[in-house]
Amino acid sequence: MQQYKNTFILEVKPGEFKGQMEELRKELRKNTAERINEFTEITIDLESYLPRWNLRSLSEGLIGEEFEKNCSLLYELGHEDRIKHIEKETIDIWSSNMYKLCCERDKGEINNWWSNNDGTGLKQAMRKGAVAVTTNPKIVNELVKRFPAYWGEKRQDIKKKFKGASLEQIAARMTTEVVLESARLLRGVYKAGDKHIGYTSLQLNPNLSDNSEAMLKDANMIYSWLREDFKGEEPNVIFKVPGTFAGLDTARELTKKGIGVNITVNYSVAQQLAFGKILEGGNARHCYLTQMNRRLEEPVADELGEGACDSPEKISSWASTAVTRRAYKMLYGEKTYKIIYGQKGYKKSILLGASINQPWHVQRVITGGNDYPMHMTIAPEELAGFEERLGKLNPCISKEIRRDIIEGLLKSETFRKAYEPDSLKSEEFDKFKPTLKTLDGFKKSYNEFCKWCGE
Q1: Is there a domain that residue 298 lies in?
Q2: I want to staple 115 with a disulfide (CB 3.0 to 4.6 A). Which of 94, 121, 377, 417 is the partner?
Q3: Are residues 87 and 116 in the same domain?
Q4: Out of 235-239, 282-286, 311-315, 377-381, which region has the weakest mean confidence (pLDDT)?
Q5: Residues 6+ apart with CB under 8 A from 363
Q6: Using one digit for the tens of pLDDT, what is the confidence trace for 10-47?
């Protein structure tokens, strides 16, 4: 897929690391033209976050020595251009605020994790500490168009293998192939993280968002493919299930079987509580409750007459923060909420901030080192400019939002429905304004993708 996919750093055993590195240098001397790209990228990996997974038992000094030996060999062989490339990439990694976030987490200062919102550039994100990746119909549709030769060949192979399959089945298999690219790359993180991280989220057909039986049928079909691809082992893939009324039964049945889910098209405390309760009763190892930030703030800003939600001074910029903080407290902790709403301190789901394109989407939901974790997913195209404005990250998930801000937000009908725990009945999830808009977009992208699959 025209991206670097070598997983040597995630797979080599610590006791064999020095010997394997020496072998790589010997191979480079013999076959410089063939191995130079791979050798350069592995050298960058050494100075990234990646060694903290399965090589954490080794000292930074030892890994640093191997890095220096690699650079010395490149210089000896006349590849000063490669050394400059390595320097540029490592500076980019070390200066990354997301990399710094991961380092703060390692020190126990905060408890936030992040993931890439697209399989493209996943390895670069993993170098900065990303532990997962997500997909949706829009992402998949754009990806196959970005790399037409690669995915066009995959499409033809699938059509030959699945003769007589429906267009939707071909689309499901193509989506599975896209997801497998990322799942294989994350497999080392998944294993090093004791199977609690390193997942790729695969979104089910959005045209079936109101049909639990059909969603389950698709999910079971895809899961059987995944098990086959991973030779019977548990796949590091979870299903994105819509936060709709039908999604409740879908999530219940999948998690009952131990299959993880990521609840998407999700904006309200009511949805988080309804799905959180279901996930807590399931047997899945890992599940997300996504909170779609920008997709909630946009209609709130519109209703408040603020135009685009593009400034932290605008009240609408606090909409997703307010919903996230309230849902976080009610799902994972505070005693008052346990008494009033009967919550139990859920431990089988993790809130995931998505639809992130502004610094406050991260800054305002930072958890403390002893707090329950909170994850976030960021699109590669947003990351560079977003990071420049991120600044220092301080724990704040438990802080109360100023009353005047909440009162201002409550003037928006969309915010009221998202914020008040009893404002949406489960049968009303499908009719919630942000849900309708997002699903319409997903359906459009999915239908375009299906059309491409049929060409």
Answers
A1: yes
A2: 377
A3: no
A4: 377-381
A5: 390, 391, 393, 396
A6: 999 999 999 999 999 999 999 888 899 999 999 999 99
Bridge pairing between strands 261-264 and 133-134 = unpaired
Q: How many residues does the chain have?
A: 455
Q: What is the pairing mode between strands 288-292 and 200-203? A: unpaired
Q: Do 281 and 267 touch, CB atoms closer than 8 A?
A: no
Q: Which residues pair with 201 in a beta bridge?
A: 134, 238
According to the model, what pLDDT value does residue 334 have? 60
Residue 100: burial class (beta carbons within 10 Å; 0-12, 13-18, 19+): middle
Backbone torsion region of residue 258, taken as left when φ is above 0, otherwise alpha when ψ lies between -120 and 50, otherwise beta: left
Sign of CA dihedral 386, 389, 393, 395: negative
Q: pTM above 0.90? A: yes
Split into its structural domains, the chain has a count of 2
Cα 107–290–333 angle (5° rounding)? 60
pLDDT attached to residue 120: 81
* Residue type present at position 87: E
Q: What is the CA radius of gyration of the chain?
A: 23
Mean pLDDT over 427-434 rounds to 96
Handedness of CA 273, 432, 367, 192 (dihedral sign): positive
CA distances in angstroms from 306 to 73, 300, 309, 404, listed in the order given: 58, 9, 7, 16
Is 1 part of a structural domain of the chain? no
Do 196 and 339 lie in one domain? The reply is yes
Closest CA to 126 of 218, 28, 219, 199: 199
> What integer pLDDT is reported at residue 449 of this predicted model?
93
Asked whether the beta carbons of 370 and 397 are under 8 A apart, the reply is: no
- Residue 159 makes CB contacts below 8 A (sequence gap 6+) with 170
Nearest residue to 202 via CA among 212, 215, 213, 192: 215
Dmax over CA atoms of the chain, in Å, equals 70
Q: What is the pLDDT of residue 391?
A: 79
Same structural domain, 58 and 122 = no
> What are the start-end ranges of the H helices in 333-432?
335-341, 360-363, 380-388, 403-409, 413-419
Separation between Cα atoms, residue 76 and residue 28, nearest integer Å: 12
Angle between helix 17-30 and 60-76 (nearest 10): 10
Other beta carbons within 10 angstroms of residue 232's beta carbon come to: 7
My answer on whether 109 and 86 are in the same domain is: no
